[in-house]
TrEMBL record:
<dbReference type="InterPro" id="IPR001970">
    <property type="entry name" value="NHE-1-like"/>
</dbReference>
<keyword id="KW-0597">Phosphoprotein</keyword>
<keyword id="KW-0832">Ubl conjugation</keyword>
<keyword id="KW-0175">Coiled coil</keyword>
<dbReference type="Pfam" id="PF00999">
    <property type="entry name" value="Na_H_Exchanger"/>
</dbReference>
<feature type="transmembrane region" description="Helical">
    <location>
        <begin position="166"/>
        <end position="196"/>
    </location>
</feature>
<dbReference type="GO" id="GO:0016323">
    <property type="term" value="C:basolateral plasma membrane"/>
</dbReference>
<keyword id="KW-0472">Membrane</keyword>
<feature type="transmembrane region" description="Helical">
    <location>
        <begin position="357"/>
        <end position="380"/>
    </location>
</feature>
<feature type="domain" description="Sodium/hydrogen exchanger regulatory region">
    <location>
        <begin position="477"/>
        <end position="574"/>
    </location>
</feature>
<feature type="transmembrane region" description="Helical">
    <location>
        <begin position="216"/>
        <end position="239"/>
    </location>
</feature>
<comment type="similarity">
    <text>Belongs to the monovalent cation:proton antiporter 1 (CPA1) transporter (TC 2.A.36) family.</text>
</comment>
<keyword id="KW-0050">Antiport</keyword>
<dbReference type="InterPro" id="IPR006153">
    <property type="entry name" value="Cation/H_exchanger_TM"/>
</dbReference>
<dbReference type="InterPro" id="IPR032103">
    <property type="entry name" value="NHE_CaM-bd"/>
</dbReference>
<feature type="transmembrane region" description="Helical">
    <location>
        <begin position="288"/>
        <end position="314"/>
    </location>
</feature>
<keyword id="KW-0739">Sodium transport</keyword>
């Protein structure tokens, strides 16, 4: 019941305080959290767990925002806090006058960075939504490069007699070396781990060992050259995961997952307990002015930095950060054991005020973890901030998400705008075409995985059937349906379906998600600058002109020859509906040879232009030919046009012998049969022949 109110990290610190007080009470010296132990053994498991299971989609979509908060925000906090603390030291009396500008800037760089361990411990308990969680947690991961650079930079500058402009420029360039160098080291070790896992099919037991070994080697190699070890661990975890999971067995995947969770949980517990013990055991120098000023300026710098940066970021974001989101981001800037360990690393010879720095750092850590960590849950409920979606998305939602990604990539291609969807698609194609073939073993690099999975399940069921002895009793030529018909009276027992484990369900979901949405890739890419003219466009324009001339001609003929209003012709669709309602409505008429022949173009029966009056002359009368048996029936004689219609011509308005004024006149006269009696109720649409 206590852990629902107080975060677990606070309880662990209290346990550490009690243990340290107990050890000190019996006359022993309590152990102190040494920086080497923290950075070499306790921190890597937490960062590897975070990097290996990093939600990559949310992280990449918000990478720009995270980088601005991590780089610009941390620089702002460090220099704002260091400058104000230098002013406080100059005005604070005799006890603080000896602290120079570089020492205050070094202190500001230590205390300004958000701690990933504290953020993970608090934010995972309050179940905040994915956007806020990845913004604060991503900032705490990526600000390590800025912290490392500023820490080593000011530590070196403190030993210089004079700092020149060249030193400052080299210090600025070292930020790119430290951050990008750490990422490069992580990528190299991630590729090596993926390539090694390709050849472990016969030694499944040691597969998890390669993941831990290469990740730890990446961290140590980066720290060896003063690069960012945290960024190296994150990069190696992100790069190796998709290829390693495709190569290793299901049991190895489960081992990696739970061992990493257990290892990071143990490290987190030890870190917070040691923080409490070190608070009791360490040497402290309390200065009210310095400590209270540090705490106050930390809060002010965080709030101002988040407000200003969010105002700038919202100009470019589609999903804006609301004031509630800004408050949670500012309030979630927790400090933790990284700041304490960096302060503990300071040398007494160059920094005589080290004890006062450690006291202020511990005060800020306790305030952020206890006060902010305990009050953030009620504040989230009070402000009605969106919580994390506990239920998984359906496969339908995931497939549609992938479809929308593909659609947005096509839209960006058409617009000529190379956004992150475009580069993501390019990277996926390169990965599928080249990288997977090198890093994934055998048939697993080929698709479709869904069919391979089905064959695997079929083979497993067949083996189980053979082992149970059921296959020997069934003749090969007899189908299962006939087997059921042999003994129809036997009632089959209800089949108990085994419950799927969560890991198996996740594997099936992953296979379905990756294979149920397949998009066609065209060889030619669309470019708005190389548009080709439509070959049908000119033909359609000519057809429209012909229609317009034909309408004018019809109007002319109607004005010259008709004395009664023309009966409005039904469209072919309406005529088909009438005929379909009562096919027997057309009864034989006499003198069918005197009726015109109407040819129907079946290519497009829905369009009114598909009716072609090929021959309106009375059959047999003018030509002298005897009527055929088909034409001897009463009614309209319909023929299918033999030649196919081309899309560029309009057969209705093709000039021919039937377009003479006399034929037009005959058409209009035939179209007006005169007044008819109204159909009685129950009669068909088209009346029977008179």
């Amino acid at each position: 019941s206590v852990s629902s109110i107080v975060p677990e990290s606070c309880l662990l610190i209290v346990v550490g305080l009690l243990v340290g007080g107990l050890i000190k009470g019996v006359g022993e010296k309590p152990p102190i959290l040494k920086s080497d132990i923290f950075f070499l053994f306790l921190l890597p498991p937490i960062i590897l767990d975070a990097g290996y299971f990093l939600p990559l989609r949310q992280f990449t979509e918000n990478l720009g925002t995270i980088l601005i908060f991590a780089v610009v925000g941390t620089l702002w906090n460090a220099f704002f806090l260091g400058g104000l603390m230098y002013a406080v030291c100059q005005l604070g009396g005799s006890g603080l006058n000896h602290i120079g500008l570089l020492a205050n800037l070094l202190f500001g760089s230590i205390i300004s960075a958000v701690d990933p361990v504290a953020v993970l411990a608090v934010f995972e308990e309050i179940h905040i939504n994915e956007l806020l969680h990845i913004l604060v947690f991503g900032e705490s991961l990526l600000n390590d490069a800025v912290t490392v650079v500023l820490y080593h930079l000011f530590e070196e500058f403190a030993n210089f007699e004079q700092v020149t402009i060249i030193d400052i420029i080299l210090g600025f360039l070292s930020f790119f070396v430290v951050s990008l160098g750490g990422v490069l080291v992580g990528v190299i070790y991630g590729v090596i781990a993926a390539f090694t896992s390709r050849f472990t099919s016969h030694i499944r037991v040691i597969e998890p060992l390669f993941v831990f070994l290469y990740s730890y080697m990446a961290y140590l190699s980066a720290e060896l050259f003063h690069l960012s070890g945290i960024m190296a661990l994150i990069a190696s975890g992100v790069v190796m995961r998709p290829y390693v999971e495709a190569n290793i067995s299901h049991k190895s995947h489960t081992t990696i997952k739970y061992f990493l969770k257990m290892w990071s949980s143990v490290s987190e517990t030890l870190i917070f307990i040691f923080l409490g013990v070190s608070t009791v055991a360490g040497h402290h120098y309390w200065n009210w002015t310095f400590v209270i000023s540090t705490l106050l300026f930390c809060l002010i710098a965080r709030v101002l930095g988040v407000l200003v940066l969010t105002w700038f970021i919202n100009k470019f974001r589609i999903v804006k950060l609301t004031p509630k989101d800004q408050f949670i981001i500012a309030y979630g800037g927790l400090r933790g054991a990284i700041a304490f360990s960096l302060g503990y690393l300071l040398d007494y010879e160059h920094f005589g005020m080290r004890d006062m720095f450690l006291t202020a750092i511990i005060t800020v850590i306790f305030f952020t973890v206890f006060v902010q960590g305990m009050t953030i849950r009620p504040l989230v409920d009070l402000l009605a901030v969106k919580k994390k979606q506990e239920t998984k998305r359906s496969i339908n939602e995931e497939i549609h998400t992938q479809f929308l990604d593909h659609l947005l990539t096509g839209i960006e291609d058409i617009c000529g705008h190379y956004g992150h969807h475009h580069w993501k698609d390019k990277l996926n194609r390169f990965n599928k075409k080249y990288v997977k073939k090198c890093l994934i073993a055998g048939e697993r690099s080929k698709e479709p995985q869904l069919i391979a999975f089905y064959h695997k399940m079929e083979m497993k069921q067949a083996i189980e059937l053979v082992e149970s002895g059921g296959i020997g009793k069934i003749p090969s030529a007899v189908s299962t349906v006939s087997i059921q018909n042999i003994n129809p009276k036997t009632v089959p027992l209800e089949r108990v379906l085994p419950a799927l484990s969560k890991d198996k369900e996740e594997e099936i979901r992953k296979i379905l998600r990756n294979n149920l949405q397949k998009t066609r890739q065209r060889l030619r890419s669309y470019n708005r600058h190389t548009l080709v003219a439509d070959p049908y466009e000119e033909a359609w324009n000519q057809m429209l002109l012909r229609r317009q001339k034909a309408r004018q001609l019809e109007q002319k003929v109607m004005n010259n020859y008709l004395t009664v209003p023309v009966h409005k012709l039904d469209s072919p669709t309406m005529s088909r509906a009438r005929i379909g309602s009562d096919p027997l409505a057309y009864e034989p008429k006499e003198d069918s040879e005197n009726l015109p022949i109407i040819t129907i173009d079946p290519a497009s029966p829905q369009s009114p232009e598909s009716v072609d009056l090929m021959s309106e002359e009375p059959q047999g009368g003018c030509s002298g030919l005897p009527p055929s048996p088909e034409e001897d029936e009463e009614g309209l004689v319909m023929r299918v046009k033999e030649e196919p219609s081309s899309p560029g011509t309009d057969d209705v308005f093709t000039p021919g012998p039937s377009d003479s004024p006399s034929n037009q006149r005959m058409l209009r006269c035939l179209s007006d049969p005169g007044p008819r009696p109204e159909p009685e109720e129950g009669e068909p649409f088209i009346p029977k022949g008179q």
